[in-house]
Amino acid sequence: MSALTIFSDTETSTPLWHSTQADEIAEQLNARGVRFERWEADRDLGRDPAPETVIGAYQHAIDKLVAEKGYQSWDVISLRADNLQKEALRAKFLNEHTHGEDEVRFFVEGAGLFCLHIEDQVYQVLCEKNDLISVPAGTPHWFDMGSEPNFTAIRIFDNPEGWVAQFTGSEIADGYPRLA
Description:
This protein is of the alpha+beta class. The protein has 3 helices and 11 strands, in the order ββαβαβαβββββββ.
């Protein structure tokens, strides 16, 4: 179940707010310039679908974003618990960073935890199947795929080079709950 938990950026043990209601999550995030939507596939994708199948099922929604925001490319990423590089990949994304472009992810299956450091708060967004999140360019954040990753997501870029991070050097991510 999708969830949003908001913390102070100085007090990590007690949440300020929590919800599992998609409309409440969207309202909170949209107020901070973060896009959060729920999408539905127009066909059954089956178990472990090929990237072309995933893109085909959501092409109508991708086309809408491309027309609205001018995104230039998209792909599909899948990561499973049996991936031999899962620990290194998890560690890479757990450090606070920013991007010169929006970070847009749509979860086709599985889950991941986006943590956004906005002003004096940390917004932990548990994204699951059918969740779209768009983290605005320049927003400090980190991502936790968990110790046993299991997700497929569509990544949408306005930079044809794909994922390019500028790490902040902050250790803030170390103080917050992680995805199990």
